[in-house]
Amino acid sequence: MEKQIPRSWIGEDILLARTGAAESELVNIKEVNEMGLAYTYKAGELKEVPIFVPWSSVSWMRPSIPADMEESETNTENVE
Hints:
The protein is an alpha+beta fold and 80 residues long. The chain has one helix spanning 66-79, and strands at 13-18, 25-33, 36-41, 51-54, 58-63.
């Protein structure tokens, strides 16, 4: 059986918008199940620390594009 979205995105970089958040975040999906998803950030203090988010906290998500990576790198440079 072929993996369906979002399970097919495990290991991929995606743009994730959490409910109520002002901006989306560039993350790497680690696990997906019926309760929600686990991911890690690509940079920053919490880099590689797994974070779990229940589905009720996810507004939308999509695969990243090169422009997302550039924007993420620019935001990281401004923080450091």
